[in-house]
Design goal:
Radius of gyration: 15 Å
Low-confidence stretches: none
Shape: globular
Number of helices: 2
Oligomer: single chain
Helix content: 10-25%
Largest sheet: 4 strands, mixed
Mean pLDDT: 90
Structural class: alpha+beta
């Protein structure tokens, strides 16, 4: 993934230099805009709800603004108590013009 054009990876480390969270994704150039797809955002389970994920998203937003990126988007689970609420809290909204579809391969 890190060799993909437009890759951005952001890590969050504790005072012992251990990674406690990260965010990775890719910048995408469209005909009239530039977007960023957040492929993964992860924070160690035992320190979730401490602001690490929010800090990663804020840092990403600042980074993308410097790179003239228009939008950031992602796919996540729906429902109460799921990651969807975290992203809503951080300013992301449901995009009714998009749908994520999957198929199980047996």
């Amino acid at each position: 993934m890190s060799n993909t054009p437009g890759y951005i990876g952001i890590g969050c480390f504790n005072i012992n230099n251990q990674m406690i969270g990260f965010l990775v994704g890719n910048k995408e150039q469209w005909a009239d805009s530039t977007s960023f797809y957040i492929d993964e955002i992860c924070v160690l389970t035992n320190i979730q709800t401490k602001g690490i994920g929010t800090s990663l998203l804020e840092y990403l937003k600042d980074t993308l603004a410097q790179k003239n990126v228009d939008t950031a988007y992602l796919s996540t689970e729906r429902g109460k108590g799921k990651p969807e609420l975290f992203f809503i809290k951080n300013g992301y909204v449901r995009n009714e013009s998009r749908v994520l579809m999957t198929m199980v391969i047996s």
